[in-house]
Task: structure prediction
Amino acid sequence: MNEAMIEMHHVFKTYPSQISALSDITLEILPGEFAFIVGPSGSGKSTLLRILFCAERPTSGEVVVHGIHITQPDFKKIYQLRRTMGIVSQDFKLLRDRTVNENVAFALEITGHIREEAKSKASEILRRVGLEEREGDSILALSAGEQQRVAIARALVNSPPLLLADEPTGNLDARMTLDVMEIFTDLHQKGTTIVFATQFTGLIKRYSYRAIRLLDGRKADSHKVEEVKATG
Amino acid sequence: MNEAMIEMHHVFKTYPSQISALSDITLEILPGEFAFIVGPSGSGKSTLLRILFCAERPTSGEVVVHGIHITQPDFKKIYQLRRTMGIVSQDFKLLRDRTVNENVAFALEITGHIREEAKSKASEILRRVGLEEREGDSILALSAGEQQRVAIARALVNSPPLLLADEPTGNLDARMTLDVMEIFTDLHQKGTTIVFATQFTGLIKRYSYRAIRLLDGRKADSHKVEEVKATG
Amino acid sequence: MMFFLQYVIRRTFQNMMGNLFSNLITIGIIAISMLIFSTFTLLAFNLTNFLKIWEDKIEVIAYLKRGTPSSEVEPLLKKTRLLEGVETVRYVSPYDAMGFMETKLGGQKNLLEGIQPAVLPPSFEIQMKKDYRNSTKIKEVVAHLKEIPQFEEIQYGQEWVETFSVLVHILRLTQWILGGLLLIAVVFITSNTLQLTISSRREEIEVMHWVGTSPSFIRIPFYLEGLIQGFLGGGLAILFLFLLHQGLFLYIPPSMQAWLAKIPVLFLPLETIAWILLGGMVLGFFGSFVASMRVLKYK
Amino acid sequence: MMFFLQYVIRRTFQNMMGNLFSNLITIGIIAISMLIFSTFTLLAFNLTNFLKIWEDKIEVIAYLKRGTPSSEVEPLLKKTRLLEGVETVRYVSPYDAMGFMETKLGGQKNLLEGIQPAVLPPSFEIQMKKDYRNSTKIKEVVAHLKEIPQFEEIQYGQEWVETFSVLVHILRLTQWILGGLLLIAVVFITSNTLQLTISSRREEIEVMHWVGTSPSFIRIPFYLEGLIQGFLGGGLAILFLFLLHQGLFLYIPPSMQAWLAKIPVLFLPLETIAWILLGGMVLGFFGSFVASMRVLKYK
Ligand SMILES: Nc1ncnc2c1ncn2[C@@H]1O[C@H](COP(=O)(O)OP(=O)(O)OP(=O)(O)O)[C@@H](O)[C@H]1O
Ligand SMILES: Nc1ncnc2c1ncn2[C@@H]1O[C@H](COP(=O)(O)OP(=O)(O)OP(=O)(O)O)[C@@H](O)[C@H]1O
Ligand SMILES: [Mg+2]
Ligand SMILES: [Mg+2]
Result:
């Protein structure tokens, strides 16, 4: 096996409609690293995260996560892999007819936590994202930014070793973005590997983490991985 | 009747769970005006736009749009009012199982345009937001930024005299935001009234339009309407 | 208007195709319900028809005293014919009675060999007028007959007359109960499928509201869907019933066919078929109406 | 394990409550289908039972020549009893024959007044062994009987025997065809509702996949739902059938009850009830299985 948390070797992703979303991506993310994936809209950031999450299969190339080859994974085992990851999806993927707490507790329940335990753990993490007063509300009663914070809470509640976050601050205002970044930095310091996709170059300028830049996804040959070290 | 396009008099909105989203809002937007609604996440921007769009009823106060009192509107007539408005919803509200073109053409078809005409008009507006190559793709095949542009195209296709846009550039990168703002500015110059809700203060700094700032929606008494004139 | 119709038809078609499987199931279920109902209607129709034929056969037999002189028969016939409620009277001589017994005994008619007809009593077969063919009225007529001294005994199928009335009664009652239940079932089922169709289109309907679609544009396609489902379900039921009706004759062995030939087994009259189709459509429409009341609130 | 069970039950309950209306409809439809099926089973059961009783009555009548001396009767009886296929033989004297005729003629028995029994022929009533009670075997026995010179004529209900065979045949065939159709219908209906339940939960299922729920956690509640629907549907059908069966007696007028008393109208035996319930569950499960195959692909 390998010591890297995530490895991608010459990964190509061409969607059925001949849209090349990723082309010849090779990268390595070490355990405990905090990596930004940056690039303009449509450059393939979400595609990259979805591949890591086994929600999409690469057209060619090899992907290794946690030492497991997930290029052609056993469909029946995907769920076990997913339990080791927290994901913040760009469209939140929350249950509309459940409350805030239920949405977060849900992720615990299905992994075998008893209900009360799941509830109280959910409360705890919701406090951390500042939604302690909204626990009993339905998801539909939340503003976009609030929903995004619920999605973040759900991704964190299992304390996964790997966190995949797709534009997790896209609907947050400047102050909340700082709050969330603080949580992420905290997790990073505790050893969690974080992959953070965003198009806001402002963030990578402010935080001096490694940034992997994807270029416009429409032109297949321009797909390159660049290392951008931003300063402070 | 009145010459203002939009009037709000002492509008309060308290959601059933006792959350006060708007409190004592009084404002007036003139025909042809371009107005930003700014404020942090959860400050009531979406609520304000939903009230103007008759998707939500104010708890008290009076709202007049196009000279029509919509505080207690005739439910059967809402659709006629909506046809005079274009709305870009924060969650896009696109049809997932239709193509890009169909999503835009749909808004024309239901107002009585024949199919071919609707299609070609949709193509035209989609070219304007840079999605001419994606017309035949399903909405699910689009990145978040691309979906947002479809939502903008749909709002514009009917050439409505009033455009309500809720965070329409939230998923767009810097370059695309400029493109969209150019379209909006263009429409504004042709006489369209535009209400543009956003939390990105960067935008209001760059464009010297009137900005109405909402303050934190959680504290009812701090709800105030401020006029912020930003300079170029 | 033309545009509206075109739109409604296209959309209904899209809706139905989008939920093809559940539409087929609904149509099938409506067809089954309507089949049960129309089978029952057909049965009731034939039974009523059969009972009418049978009703005509209700008769009173008055046995004359043995050895009544034939000169007395003619005036007696006249007298009987004049009684209230009596339609026709037929004189059955001892010879006729012998023939009747032979028929009645069928295979065992050998028993009668060697019996002289003369030992049998003559009798009158009395047909009642239509309005008098029920147990109360017959009893009245029988009472009058009993007053005539030349009659030894009066007999009539009292038991059968009573059973007959009960049968008709049960039939009518069952028809209404079963009919009612099935109608409710059809409305529920159509309503349910359409409700599910509508909820599976919830997102779409929300978007339609969002872009300013008029309520009728949203609803009418669903109503039409219900109508079509009801119509197709009813049509299938009738088709299937017709095939069953035809198949009955193909399958039945010749020996029974001869027996059935005596009772005409009719198919439903065109008018009833039209009513069933119309009924299916009304039910389908009603189902979709209920569904849209429940689900299609304007937002 | 305990936790898993608890989870599955809670979720199944949530699912069913969330789609309560369509669940009720499904259960109702399954109940109707099963009711039709079990009504048919009950009818078949009773008819078979009735036919068995009737079968016992199939007999051959051999008329003796008129004036056969009574000394010859005893040896003839013995001889007949020894024939292959014959079970019992009963001697019917002319006096017995007279009594029989009176019964047969019922209301018209007055016709017989004045007839001397002596003019009637004596006869043997011959019961067949069970295996011989069908048209081919009876014909063989009759051929043997015809060889005995003391018999004037041999009679048996040939027509009835044939009709009987045909009836049993039709009954069996219809049972299988109808049964098969209804079973398919129940699977389709359950599958359809569950498919709709599943699609109405599509978003939720997607989220479940997203947070790493194991496939069995997602599927088993749906299977259980199908099982429960099938069980409740079957149970309702049996309950309703039982009420119908009981109600039959309450509603029928005393005159007919006496008549029905002769033919015992039985309810289904416990074993059959168990099979029907089990069948409902299997069908429900199968329906949900088909539905989840169609809709629940892992993403
Ligand atoms: N299922 C799909 N089928 C076809 N094309 C797709 C599909 N998903 C994504 N694409 C295309 O692949 C490209 C990359 O999409 P992706 O969602 O990865 O972009 P992104 O970097 O996340 O953009 P954004 O910042 O707008 O979310 C886009 O052009 C998109 O239209
Ligand atoms: N249907 C609802 N029921 C109860 N509370 C609601 C409902 N919709 C919104 N709210 C609450 O009202 C407040 C204002 O919400 P709104 O969506 O208007 O905020 P916003 O300014 O659009 O925020 P964002 O920038 O995050 O979209 C929030 O606290 C939100 O939770
Ligand atoms: Mg994306
Ligand atoms: Mg908002």
Observations:
- The mean pLDDT of chain A is 87.
